[in-house]
Amino acid sequence: MPFSNRRILLGITGSIAAYKSAILLRLLVKGGAEVQVIQTEAARDFIGPLTLATLSGKPVLSEMHLDDQWANHVALGHWADALLIAPASANTLGKMAHGLVDNLLTAVYLSAKCPTLVAPAMDADMWDHPATQDNLSILSRHGVVVLPVGEGPLASGLEGPGRLAEPEHIVEELQAFFQRDTSLAKKKILITAGPTHEAIDPVRFIGNHSSGKMGIRLAEEALRNGYEVVLVLGPSSEPTPVSNRLNLVRVTSALEMQEAVRQHLHATDIFILAAAVADFRPDVPAAQKIKKEGRQSLALNLVANPDLAAWIGNNKKPHQFLCGFALETENLVENARAKMDKKNMDLIVINSPNDAQSAFGYDTNKIAILDKSGKLISFERQSKNDAARAILQAIAERL
Ligand code: CTP
User: How far is CA 197 from CA 38, 323, 362, in A?
Assistant: First the structure.
């Protein structure tokens, strides 16, 4: 049975979709899980505790002012293997994102040591609101697994995204999550991300337009999958994930990035090099700000930076896996293949600034993944979140 010996806290919040929680609960119990239901006050208007208590075989918890339950919120979070909140309303997602505690469910979430998965459900307009989308990205950064919503007719009469995923689908996602968690736990992954800045003088640098978003999404996805993550991040203004399994190393230049990678070279199982490392740097940065007076031109002498991908590729042990990126504007697959061979990579992710809303700076990316055997998987344009999921899945399949 897929969930035998699994202890699941099922959080149910105030959404019309709460009626589907009964089916979800039934599927979890049938799969062998021990389930403790926590309902918010608002959820009781949509589904009665008697139904849920009967299906789970345990009294439903919801009041936090009862002394025994309030004291137990910490114990509950420690007891469970996963906290699954389905449906998760816009209101509860907002409170979780901002650390607000006003009921038992939010208290359990904030003190839980187990992974949390949420299956959002709301009206399409609420789903589309920037506040909701910001809350979801905050939760993602905090390591919460946000399950996809369905699209279609909504209880409000609107059509669009925001439907609770079907219970069968939620169960599949939870099962896949547990599988990943056990197979990948304790594997160490190092991700380079962002641009590098190469100093010309104390106030100027040579850089590029990389935002770091793709690498940060990869780090978030890796954390959700249970990996220990080292994120070596060049200058980027993007918010970074927060987790006790994340070691965030901020660097500025290619040489600093190399030093950070060197420190983790032997302990790493998987390298994903998403950084746009400057190929060249000024040989000797000026000690003082370069003045323009009296100059008609300025020549900089550049020297080559170390190629981190090639360096790791040449030094990696057989158990270590190297995934690189290729940003190409022409002959995409041929150039990527040559790059993969030259740098001894196991996998290469191809993207192109020629594609609309892809690569540098965008939240979406159109990628293709090429492996050593020549197998190529091409994707349509998708969120960098989904691209990160596809990349990590491709790596996990080849470990
Ligand atoms: N890379 C690296 N260190 C460098 C340059 C690149 O680790 N000094 C990595 C990138 O993070 C990426 C891969 O190598 O994973 C490909 O980088 P790219 O710049 O596209 O390749 P180059 O070999 O530099 O080729 P070109 O710029 O000529 O396309």
Answer: 49, 23, 20
Query: Ligand 1 centre from 308 Cα, in Å?
Result: 8
Domains of the chain: 7-182 (3.40.50.1950), 185-285+297-398 (3.40.50.10300)
pLDDT at 34: 97
385 is catalytic: no
The ranges of the chain with pLDDT < 70 are 64-71, 181-185
CA of 326 from ligand 1 middle (Å) equals 7
Q: Is the CB of 307 under 6 A from ligand 1?
A: yes
CB 140 within 8 A of CB 98: no
| Residues 217-262 pLDDT 10s | 999 999 888 889 999 999 999 999 888 789 999 999 999 999 999 9
How far is residue 282 from each of residues 200, 201, 203, 256, 286, measured CA to CA in Å? 6, 9, 13, 15, 9
Secondary structure percentages of the chain, helix, strand, coil, to 5 = 35, 25, 40
- Ligand 1 neighbourhood includes 277 CB (under 6 angstroms): yes
Whether residue 348 has its Cβ less than 6 Å from ligand 1: no
Contact 247/231 with Cβ under 8 angstroms? yes
Residue ranges of alpha helices (H) inside the chain are 19-30, 49-56, 67-71, 73-79, 90-97, 104-111, 124-128, 130-141, 167-184, 213-224, 254-263, 308-315, 332-342, 384-398
Single pTM value for the model: 0.76
Atom of ligand 1 at shortest range from CA of 278: 8
What is the reported pLDDT for 142? 87
pLDDT tens digits along 104-128: 999 999 999 888 999 999 999 999 9
CA angle 288, 294, 295 (to 5 degrees): 75
299, amino acid identity:
A
- Ligand 1 atom, smallest distance to 275 CA: 11
pLDDT at site 226: 81
